[in-house]
C-alpha cells in the first residue's frame, strides 16, 4: 500500500495551524479549518467539553482563550491514515500547558487526539476532533509567574507569514 504523503503532510499542516490558532485565539483561522457540521469532544480529568457546529466550536474556543490566558499546545507523533480521496483519520499525541491569570489555575498534561478529516474543494478540514487525557495536573498558584509577554494580552504580535 502506497502512502499518500502529500495528503498526510497537508493534514499535518492543518493540525499545526489548529494548535497555533488555539493559542493565539485566531478566529478566522479556526473558522477556516472546520467544516460547518464539525464536532469536538475533549475529556480531561476536571472537565468534559463538547461542541457541535463550526460556529459553536470557534466561539467556545476563542472565549476560552481570552486576554487573561496563556497557553501552549504541541502535537507530536502523528499517525495519519488517508482512507480515500476525501477522507482521513489521525491520531496525535498532545502536550499542553495553560494558565488562567484570573483564577491562578495552571493546567499541564498530555492527551491522545483522534481526528476525522474531510477534503472540501481540494482542502483538508477537521470534521471531528476528540481527545482523552493521559494525565492532567491542575494547580492553583499562590503567586502568578512573571510572564513578560502574551499574545492574547496584545503585547506581542504573531509574525505574519510572508513570501521571501
Any overview of this molecule?
The chain has 164 residues and is α+β, with helices and mostly antiparallel strands. It has helices spanning 5-23, 27-33, 54-64; strands at residues 34-43, 48-52, 69-82, 87-100, 105-120, 123-140. A 6-stranded mixed sheet has the order 2-1-6-5-4-3. The protein is globular, with a radius of gyration of 16 Å. It starts with a helix and ends in a 24-residue tail after the last strand.
Biggest sheet descriptor: 6 strands, mixed
The separation of the N and C termini measures: 37 Å
What gyration radius follows from the Cα positions, in whole Å? 16 Å
Based on DSSP secondary structure assignment, what is the total number of beta strands?
6
Global mean pLDDT: 94
Query: Which word captures the global form?
Result: globular
Query: DSSP helix count?
Result: 3
Strand content: over 45%
Which descriptors would you attach to this protein?
single chain; 164 residues
Short description:
The chain is of the alpha+beta class and about 160 residues long. It is built from three helices and six strands; from the N terminus they run ααββαββββ.
Amino acid at each position: 500500500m502506497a502512502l499518500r504523503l502529500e495528503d498526510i503532510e497537508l493534514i499535518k499542516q492543518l493540525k499545526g495551524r489548529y494548535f497555533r490558532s488555539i493559542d493565539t485565539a485566531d478566529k478566522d483561522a479556526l473558522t477556516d479549518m472546520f467544516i460547518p457540521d464539525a464536532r469536538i469532544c475533549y475529556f480531561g480529568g476536571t472537565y468534559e467539553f463538547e461542541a457541535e457546529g463550526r460556529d459553536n466550536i470557534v466561539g467556545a474556543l476563542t472565549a476560552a482563550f481570552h486576554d487573561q490566558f496563556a497557553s501552549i499546545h504541541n502535537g507530536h507523533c502523528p499517525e495519519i491514515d488517508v482512507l480515500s480521496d476525501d477522507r482521513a483519520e489521525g491520531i496525535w499525541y498532545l502536550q499542553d500547558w495553560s494558565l488562567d491569570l484570573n483564577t491562578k489555575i495552571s493546567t499541564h498534561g498530555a492527551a491522545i487526539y483522534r481526528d476525522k478529516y474531510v477534503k472540501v474543494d481540494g482542502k483538508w478540514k477537521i470534521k471531528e476532533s476528540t481527545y482523552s487525557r493521559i494525565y492532567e495536573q491542575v494547580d492553583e498558584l499562590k503567586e502568578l509567574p512573571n510572564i513578560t509577554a502574551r499574545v492574547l494580552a496584545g503585547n506581542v504580535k504573531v509574525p505574519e507569514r510572508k513570501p521571501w
